[in-house]
User: Which sequence fits this backbone?
């Protein structure tokens, strides 16, 4: 699977990447966390970071002999 095909699995909108801190870039929503004070933070990642996270998952799955399914970050 090519990087383009992996990125096409996610919806994109302008925002800030939680991982590299890049602002005003296309990001995809991965998760949300709520602090003990009840503040909600959206975790969105840019294309570079999504590909890095996907690579980590692919390598992890490979080591454990698990199926790797791209496009499921944050779910
Ligand atoms: Zn990023």
Assistant:
């Amino acid at each position: 699977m090519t990087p383009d095909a992996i990125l096409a699995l996610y919806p994109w909108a302008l925002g800030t990447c939680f991982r590299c801190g890049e602002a005003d870039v296309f990001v995809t929503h991965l998760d949300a966390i709520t602090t003990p004070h009840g503040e909600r933070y959206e975790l969105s990642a840019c294309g570079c970071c999504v590909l890095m996270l996907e690579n980590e998952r692919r390598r992890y799955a490979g080591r454990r002999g698990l199926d790797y399914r791209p496009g499921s970050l944050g779910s």
